[in-house]
Amino acid sequence: MKKLRLIIEREFIAKVRNKSFLIMTFLSPLIGVGMIALVVFLMKKNDDKVKEIVYVDESGLFSKEDFKDTKTIKYQDFTDLGFEETKKKVEDGNHYGVLYLPKQDSLEVLAKSIQFYSKDTPGLNTIENVERNVNRRLRNLKMTNLGINLEKIKASRISSDIKMFNFSGEQSSKLINGLKIGVGTVAGYLLMMFVIIYGTSVMRSVIEEKTSRIIEVIVSSVKPFQLMLGKIIGNASAGLLQFIIWGILLLILNVVASSFFGLDMSEMQTANMSPEQAEALKQAASGNKMQMIFQEIMKMPLVTLFFLFIFYFFGGYMLYSSLFAAIGAAVDNETDTQQFMMPIMMPLMLAVYVGAFTVINDPHGPVSVIFSHIPLTSPIVMLMRVPFGVAWWEIAISMALLLITFLGVVWLASKIYRVGILMYGKKPTYKDLWKWIRYSG
Amino acid sequence: MSNLLEINNVVKRYGDYTALNDVSLHIPKGSVFGLLGPNGAGKTSLIRIINQITMPDAGEIILDGEKLAPHHIEHIGYLPEERGLYKSMKVGEQALYLAQLKGLSKAEARKRLKYWFDKFDIGAWWNKKIEELSKGMAQKVQFIVTVLHQPKLLIFDEPFSGFDPINAQLIAKEILQLRDEGATIIFSTHRMESVEEMCDYIALINKSNKILDGKLDDVKRQYRTNTFQVGINTSNPKEVEAKLKENFKVYPADFRMLNDGLTLNVKLTQGNSANDLLSYLTSQGEVQHFVELIPSANDIFIQAVGKNSIV
Question: Where does the sequence pass through the membrane (chain B) (predicted)?
Fold first, then answer.
């Protein structure tokens, strides 16, 4: 036990003292925030530019009423100038584009013959705005033609907000569901990142011991299994430290950035949303809804969630990093790791994709359920499912499977590790690894 | 003298390959024991078993009267042939770490390190990283780390590789001194001249089998051929040579004498002794050279391995 502590300590210090660790820890949040700030800055800059669109309405069916100005698009009526003149003027001038609404016999023909000329290909937002305006007017005209009372249509509009409950009486809503997805996704991605960054770091540390040839000196003092375990735990500790520092730095930078540049993080998020979504979010963020979210968070089984998070996080990390350690032991240098990395990365990626696409839509569907039980994917998929409420026996089975697999994999990995660390030269094949596993003692 | 280490009927297999086939060795306390053998003979396999890096498939190992167990790690110091240190770690920290893995307390390790660093005059390296040192310097640090916990049993696998002759001499002296202070040393090497210089006992392993072991002098006696190198100043060399051929086996010799005389290798045959040969020679002229050809470790090695390979 004392030796294990020594190894963990050494691995931790070696990792933390490494220059690249320091750079990663302190520079990457800066770079991250810097990039976000840049994107926001450019987005604002972009928004500042107003597109002036002129329209020539020969049909006589449209008015300025139909083309409402927005923050970024302004409409002007150039009908009097005539289409050809306008086109020429716009081509030479500062206007962004021309919308041409020709005179036609019927609305249907008109709908198919409207044209838009611009200097460059317009963005999706611009063209959507123009189309929406045209469509609304044409639909209204059509409805009037069909003898539908527009006033009544307007009066008939109603929006529902379905309140969702489960049978134990907990209330939920779309918003709360979103929150749950958020919590699950963040946890899942965090785990994946952690596994990849620190799993490969374990692997590199094993390879370093092999190439510097210190390994035989070390294993004459400690058991290879102790060394492997110490490495895995030491690297994880360094990783946790890094994550904590990142969390603190991001918090600080967020505060600094928002007070300094007047950037509002919520503005950033709404920038990409349609007005309706943004509106909903704003409503949600204000007053009662905010309180409700807070209450909802408190209502989630936080203690259970936290416990499960810890369990799956470390279960998943230990499972994968022992595989990484075995790979490191099997090869002589990092370039040889490729062939063995594939089978490890695949379930990891699969888990994230299943999590991102299936769990979000159908947290209790067969695909989600199956992948939350397969040990190589369960840490990520189950973490994403848990906020939606999973039956205790399902969690118990999944945890038991993970634990059993973990023990089995560590046993196999330590066998490969024990033989591999003392093997030099030939790049091993899967057949060699199998042979090593079968060696006794 | 009692044995510090007894290796009894050890077998080690890797899959279908047998690395050690029923090998037994007894290593006396306070001796330097040369473990010899060509590449791939099984030396490293045996050493790894003694270090408990791998386990034997059969047989047992007794260290100082006890069956080998994990706690014995602290009584063994091992300098492997494939050796190295953490490149980006500082010399002092690294030495402390490795010493603690061998069971020393930090304070004790620091105290002993100071003694050795002073002895080798390398105190200035304490805060340097290994990658800043030359290969020979790193080897010195490695040697210190190996012996620091004052193990009863020291295992050196090719200890002189990587050292220049001066430092090799220094290390050889240290090894012999450690023996004199009571340590038992297993010394594995190809360099036969260092075997002559250092070993009290030797064992020869070839193709997974022990083919020879014992006190170096005894082994040499066993391999002596009763051949003498003689040099004589005589007026009628042809006659002397012919006469010698009647009673002994005579081979041409290849060594230099100060004045031109007859030089020969003469092997005693049944029924005659060295004195018979000498007294005949003295009656024929002035004997300038008379030396028994004692087989060197190198000769024994080549002869034993060669014989073993043919069988």
Answer: none
Give the list of residues 6+ apart from residue A340 with CB closer than 8 angstroms, or none: A327, A330, A331
- Beta-strand ranges (E) seen in chain B are 3-14, 17-28, 32-36, 58-63, 66-67, 76-79, 153-157, 184-189, 201-206, 209-215, 227-233, 249-252, 262-267, 286-292
User: Cα(A20)–Cα(B94) distance, rounded to whole angstroms?
Assistant: 21
- How confident is the model at residue A288, as a pLDDT? 59
CATH of the domain at B250: 3.30.70
R_g of chain A computed on alpha carbons: 30
Beta-carbon separation of A217 and B102 below 8 A: no
For residue B209, is it left (φ>0), alpha (ψ between -120 and 50) or beta? beta
- Would the CB atoms of B102 and A221 count as touching at under 8 Å? yes
- Residue ranges and CATH numbers for the domains of chain A are 52-154 (3.40.190.10), 171-438 (no CATH)
Tokens 């430290």 belong to residue: A241
Give whole-number Cα distances, A76 to A124, A227, A397, in Å: 20, 75, 66
Whole-number pLDDT of residue A268: 46
Yes or no, beta carbons of A217 and B142 under 8 Å apart: yes
Give residue-wise pLDDT tens across range A332-374: 888 888 888 888 889 888 888 888 888 777 888 888 888 888 8
CB contact under 8 A, A6 and B15: no
Contact B56/A at CB under 8 A: yes
Are both B232 and B287 inside the same structural domain? yes
Neighbours of A285 (CB within 10 A): 12
Query: Which residues of chain A lie closer than 8 angstroms to B102, CB-CB?
Result: 221
Residue B286 domain boundaries: 225-292
| CB-facing half-sphere around the CA of A191: CA atoms within 13 A | 32
- Identify the closest residue of chain B to A424 by CA–CA distance: B82
Query: SS3 of A390, please?
Result: coil
> pTM of the full predicted structure?
0.74
Cβ pair A36, A258 in contact under 8 A: no
Interface test with B, best of A220, A332, A436 (most B CBs within 10 A): A220
Q: Do the beta carbons of residue A436 and residue A415 sit within 8 Å? A: yes
